[in-house]
Amino acid sequence: MRSALLNVMVQAARKAARRLQRDFGEVENLQVSLKGPADFVSNADRQAEDTLREELARARPGYGFLLEERGEIKGTDPNHRWIIDPLDGTTNFLHGIPHFAISVGLQRDDTIVAGLIYNPISDEMFTAERGRGAFLNDRRLRVAARRELAQAVVACGIPHNGRGDHGLFREELARVQAKAAGIRRLGAAALDLAYVAAGRYDGYWERGLKAWDIAAGLLIVREAGGTVGDIDGRADVLATGNILAANERIYAELGKELKAAGRG
Ligand code: IPD
Ligand code: CA
Ligand code: CA
Question: 142 CA to middle of ligand 1, Å?
């Protein structure tokens, strides 16, 4: 049985997802046009965000918003705000790759208390509420039990043109590459975190993310028994956006490699 709060979030996500799904079908047809589907996709993105905002505002009037597309919208309730990425994995969506998600987190004061990540193509709904565990559809989630980096599949984010520190990433990659069983980069941070919670990945790191990429995912990983923090050990990963997530053992080992990379 889902709580009333999660029901509200699930319904809003399903509504926004129906539209995204239709638009994704259309994107495949637009690949061959000279201009490509870029404008169409940013429109789909904004529409999904509007749907989420309208649905959530109706169910919880007064809550504020931090939206990827439209920024901060202050609510009359100073303690609550939704942190939303209506389409995480835009580049995948744009290229017709069926790996993207809606991400919705609810922040109470400084704490994320509920999170939802929904991939409309695979129909996988990852949810969590603080203190109540994490779920994939109706199944309880648990991070993987692997204890050695040598057995671990680790996901990452690769900074692309104009973003991030490419040299540092290559150093980090070289360190992890030498130790891990496999490395993945599927291109949707929210799903990377959801996959850690589901025990598919043993760990994940990425730098330069925004609050809407990780708000829901960090709670889902923690509620699945995993550890989430800032790569460099700073206090607030939601603010730094340099995220490391794994089970406790892999977290320590992976963290050690990444820190060593930073020191050159
Ligand atoms: C991006 C994805 C990607 C990550 C980028 C994010 P967007 O979000 O999560 O995996 O590497 O840094 O910006 O732009 O698709 O919402
Ligand atoms: Ca994103
Ligand atoms: Ca996005």
Answer: 25
